[in-house]
Amino acid sequence: MSTRKNVKYTDADFEATALKWYEEIESDGEGSEYEDNVEPISEHENEISESDISDSEIIDSSGSSKKNVILGKNGYKWSTLEPPRTKTQHRNIVVKIPGLQGPAKNVTNEFEAWKILFTADMIESIVGLRKHLETMSSRATYISKTTQNELVNCIGEEITAKIVNQIKNAKYFSVMFDETTDVSHVSQMSIVIRYVHENDIREDFIAFLDCHEENYTLDKDTLEPILSGKILGQTVLKQLKLLDLNLNNCVGICTDGCSVVTSEQNGAVQEVKKGMPVAVRCPCYNHALNLALSKTSNVQSVRNLMGTIKEVSAFFTASSKRHFVLKNTLDKHLYGLCETRWVERHECILQFKNDFDAILDALEKISLWNERDTASKAKNLMISLTTPDFILTLYCLSNVLSLTLPLSNLLQDKKVEKNRANEMISCTLSALKNKRGSASDCFNAILTETQNILKVLDVELTLSRLTNKMRNRSNPNPNLSSNSPEDYYRISLFIPLLDCVINDLESRFSKETINLFNLNICLPLNAMEATETEIKTTGKMLSDMYTLIFVEDPKTVFDKFKGEFDI
Questions:
Q1: Do 52 and 84 belong to one domain?
Q2: DSSP letter string over 506-521?
Q3: 226 to each of 187, 214, 215, 230, how far by Cα in Å?
Q4: Fewer beta carbons below 10 Å: N end or C end of the chain?
Q5: HSE on the CB side for 496, CA within 13 Å?
Q6: Total domain count, the chain
Q7: 548 lies in which domain range?
Q8: pTM above threshold 0.85
């Protein structure tokens, strides 16, 4: 055991070491970023023990020991090791020289600086406004909120009048309207007119209405201010009449797909058509497709599957820890059942099917955590995902969505042609009907694919409990001894799913709307290739639907239309 002794370093030693570092850095031509390895010492200033020195020794290349700590005047230990050379981080690099830029470089006085910020017209307007406020009477300044609102209304009336004149010059137009409740809990309806102006298609906003104020007054007789489809339709007709537009020239109506608007009994569209006899409703086809797919939730198994997938997605996104486990297992983002991004709805189901094993692995890892609530929730979700009903429903729904996904992508393309969209809709419906016609063969193929994953999960395909009366799903006859799990799921799941999608698509993509695509043969490019059958079909449709526009009998309209093609 060595005796304890104190060692002191002079200021000269410290200055010599610092100078040596500086010379080495200068010789390399660049500086180095490092953190001083400093820590306070005991109250015995300028003194360190021999044991401290021995702990801080290093061995150089020659094998001799060299002390790497010296003591400064301020009571801190300073390292004698050469600081590490590191690259400067990108965020610390100056990429733009600070200071004046552009015209500001030539500014020599305050006046020139003001000229850059304020143009001559701006200064003249400010000076003119000041003179007006100084010379006019306090009652004629025109700066009150009432006057400002009147000026805004006057500007709005001028703009609306200009738009109405353009619509009248175009003659034919379509109307788009929608009603919603804003953040201030006021029912608002927006009305947009679509027309052709100078060979350009325009969609101009013309009105923003409070539906309750337009149709009800605040008196004791008003018990319940209901906004039915009939009232919404009357509101649209009333506004168009105030604009002095000829309703017989309205050829199209565009709305969303809610029941209040589209109902055949008391819908807003039916009420509007009473004042616009030749108008045809043209919905957003992608919105219609999304609503048709949403209707699949009428099938109980599909509804349960949608709810379970939403719970799984919410479970992983609610915690960064869970999302980290999913990301490492899945290697990509898990799509959610978005209500507005319709392609994402397809991709969510298809991804869930393709990455089913990885999702189960992530849930299994989380179920082993010490966090009791999270582990319990993960275990319950695993049990829900590994039921035969969930797996078969997932594969059946994926089989249907694989047909509708290309249609959804096509309908969102800004440059899609109407004929191409019409063909795609017809092909999709035809493919779904073919599946329905050969439901047994299609379902057997799906069942074969499903059997593989059921075998891996050690899940047995069993028959659900059957009763004589079942209100929520189709059911084979429980008295027949030939009932099997295959027959049960085909009758209660696959066939109702196909029927639901097909019927809803046919109702939303009506023949009246799709037939309008036949008018494309009037375009010069298509007219040269039109067949005799297409010309007759389109001519008959044109003469029957738009008799009021042509003010002639249907046969005369048809003869003129066919004569144009003969020429």
A1: yes
A2: HHHS-HHHHGGGGGGG
A3: 11, 12, 10, 10
A4: N
A5: 21
A6: 5
A7: 518-566
A8: no
The average pLDDT across 363-387 equals: 91
Q: How far apart are CA 459 and CA 482, in angstroms?
A: 22
Instruction: Summarize the confidence of residues 141-163 as an average pLDDT.
Output: 88
Contact by Cβ (8 Å): 25, 32: yes
> Are 223 and 211 in contact, with CB atoms under 8 Å apart?
no
What is the spatial distance between Cα 251 and Cα 172, in angstroms, rounded to a whole number?
7
d(CA 443, CA 541): 41
The C-alpha R_g of the chain, in whole angstroms, comes to 39
Residue 394, exposed/middle/buried by CB under 10 A (0-12, 13-18, 19+)? buried
Q: Are residues 427 and 370 in the same domain?
A: yes
* Calpha distance 276→239 (Å, rounded): 13
Which residues, in sequence order, are CB contacts of 246 under 8 Å at separation 6+?
Answer: 168
Kind of pairing between the strands at 200-210 and 187-197: antiparallel
Q: Are 450 and 392 in contact (CB under 8 A)?
A: yes
Separation CA 363–CA 380 (nearest Å): 9
pLDDT score of 67: 57
Among 31-45, 87-101, 334-348, 376-390, name the most confident range. Answer: 376-390
Give the type of residue at 64. S
Cβ-count burial 434-468 (b if 16+ within 10 Å, e if not): ebbeeeeebbeebbeebeebbeebeeebeeeeeee
pLDDT digits (tens, 9 = 90+) for 39-74: 444 444 444 444 443 344 444 444 444 457 777 666
